[in-house]
């Protein structure tokens, strides 16, 4: 079902709970979306990159193979793929930026226009690359993607941008 057609009524009906149960946990659909999308993102990725590890490192490969399941990859691909919405991609982008901020012990107030533009540009390109991954071969395809020079440069660019903010 397209994201735009999802309703709270539909969610609670399908889950067999009342609306109060929904509102006990979430303020609205956006809050539910942020929670669900945030749970999909692998928060350890920026931590490895911040330590100077490149996506080609063995530690990075181990992280991918131990934290990503076909279901998680399928859900991530639904968020960034062609059937997604700009709102869902923005929620994932914000979750990634927040993870980078946490890694560098920064807050959203620390972001400047240059770092924001860099993050939007880099993550837009990464989402585009990742949207071509097939769930059936995700580990093999992710291993190919992480070795691309463009991915190496993107990782280094994100790290440098956030290090510059930290001073």
Descriptive account of the structure:
The protein has 167 residues and is mostly helical. The protein contains ten helices and no strands. It has helices at 8-15, 19-25, 29-40, 44-50, 58-67, 70-80, 86-103, 113-130, 138-146, 149-166. The termini are far apart. 20% of the residues are buried. The mean pLDDT is 89.
Q: Brief overview, please?
A:
This protein has 167 residues and is mainly α. It has helices at 8-15, 19-25, 29-40, 44-50, 58-67, 70-80, 86-103, 113-130, 138-146, 149-166.
Descriptive terms for the model:
single chain, 167 residues, mainly alpha, globular
Cα-based radius of gyration, to the nearest Å: 17 Å
Helix/strand structural class: mainly alpha
Could you tell me the strand content as a percent range? under 5%
Helix content: over 70%
Largest sheet: none
Average pLDDT:
89
The total strand number stands at: 0
Task: Furnish the topology, listing elements before pairings.
Elements: H1 8-15, H2 19-25, H3 29-40, H4 44-50, H5 58-67, H6 70-80, H7 86-103, H8 113-130, H9 138-146, H10 149-166
